[in-house]
Amino acid sequence: MVQVCLNGSRNAAGSGVVPTVPAELADAAGKAVAAGARDIHVHPRSPCGRESLAPGVLTPVLEAVRAVVDVPVGVTTVAWAEPAPERRAAWVRAWPVLPDHASVNWHEPGAEAVAAALLERGVGVEAGIWSGTDGAERFAASPLGPRVLRVLAEVMDPCAGSARETAHGLLRALDAYGAHGRPVLLHGEDGGAWPVLRLAGELGLATRIGVEDTLLLPDGSPAASNAELVRAALRELARGASEGGRPWGCGTAGRNDAGPGGRGTLPRGR
């Protein structure tokens, strides 16, 4: 399963390919799904471009994207969109339209409260475990762990030469501490995006690609869109499969058994 990450925190003025407003996000989502993406991750932005979890910002994005796609749509709950943990949880409880899932960075203050609010509302939780943090240890100790939709193993090493080894280290940490048997989506960013995506393919894990993670194609040329990145990702994964990738066999953290699309039996949230 390839998830597309449409925008993230990138500055739209810096590239010209970063969608921000609902109409742009819907267009990018539709084209990415047509290219082969099977799940969507988006950072809603206010009209002035600021990331926000406010209902008035999130609702138009979800409605616009869902008007053109029929795959799960997820959003972020990243702390810099709303630094106060209690405020993040309050926004979740106030959402009139629900995403299918939302990512929660487990190393951030208030992660448990935000995840609990999402689960209370029937929204799937993607547990974001960043390399270089204590997220894996915190997640292993969480009573909410068995209830999350999946683990996002997020390799924050932007160096192409070392990201693959950093990814192995993160997966070893998840295996050592325990990932509650949840399926894993492995991805990298910037220079590490493509090496980590190839590793995910070799290990039989879900992955993601999009302008949140990289603005470049595997050959180093600029990507024109999220859809172009998705097409390139599927080519890379197919090439890896033809060369004989192998599934990851280290404990339960590598199991990606959430069913079609990596989403198990999670109902479509509204």
TrEMBL record:
Q: Which Gene3D superfamilies match?
A: Aldolase class I (3.20.20.70)
Region described as Disordered: spans on this chain: 242-270
Query: Which InterPro entries does this chain map to?
Result: Aldolase_TIM, BKACE
**Compositional bias segments (type: Gly residues):** 242-252
Show the PANTHER family listed in the entry: 3-KETO-5-AMINOHEXANOATE CLEAVAGE ENZYME-RELATED, 3-KETO-5-AMINOHEXANOATE CLEAVAGE PROTEIN
> What is this protein called in UniProt?
3-keto-5-aminohexanoate cleavage protein
> Whose protein is this, by species?
Streptomyces chrestomyceticus
